[in-house]
Design a protein that fits this description.
Distance between the termini: 23 Å
Largest sheet: 6 strands, mixed
Helix content: 25-40%
Order of helices and strands: HHEEHEEEE
Strand order of the largest sheet: 2-1-6-5-4-3
Number of helices: 3
């Protein structure tokens, strides 16, 4: 069974798995916010730097398993596998989208 994701989220996961941060500008809005591992990352340039660092640090991939809507957000449960204790782990990726771009992403257990 394949999961249909909104275009910017599909692009986000494709670039995540290809370890290609160049797609950040096409899927995130300029003033987007990401919350991950207790940090808040703001703006496309900072988000791109975060993606490069997490890719280098964890060498991870994400397999989207399920998608749902919650409080106006798109929630994707993804199996994250990589170089970290407890791998693989299922994490929620909670997206807010406006005008075809991601404006907010929170990653949590």
């Amino acid at each position: 069974m394949s999961i249909r994701l909104p275009a910017p989220i599909d692009l986000y996961f494709a670039s995540e798995n290809a370890h290609d941060p160049s797609a950040i500008d096409r899927c995130f809005a300029a003033g987007s916010v990401v919350r991950d591992e207790g940090k808040t990352i703001t703006g496309a340039a900072a988000i791109k730097a975060w993606r490069i660092e997490t890719s280098r640090k964890y060498r991870h991939t994400v397999e989207p398993l399920a998608v749902s809507a919650r409080d106006g957000r798109v929630v994707v449960t993804g199996k994250v596998s990589g170089d970290f204790p407890g791998s693989p782990i299922n994490l929620e990726h909670i997206f807010e989208i406006e005008d075809g771009r991601i404006v907010s992403l929170e990653i949590r257990p």
